[in-house]
Amino acid sequence: MWVTADGHIRQELRADGRYDEARGTRASAYTGRYTVTGSHIDYVDDTGFTATGDVRDGVLFHEHLVLHRETDEGASEVTHQG
Length: 82
Description:
Layout: E1 2-4, E2 9-13, E3 18-23, E4 26-37, E5 40-45, E6 50-56, E7 59-62, E8 65-69
Antiparallel strand pairs: 1-2, 1-8, 2-3, 3-4, 4-5, 5-6, 6-7, 7-8
């Protein structure tokens, strides 16, 4: 799970290439698929909107957001390929 410092945005990157992003109390605010190339992530949400992200030094920079790993859940690193 990736989360903003204030906990408002929570993004789960699932092993099956799908993502689920919660915003505040709104579960599954955005859902879609993603692909990883190296440390770069390409997102396509279920409405067709596209976005990108990059993992640098253990931090996910997703468009204007900065998300950190929520380590207490024991989630695995981002490894989904195409």
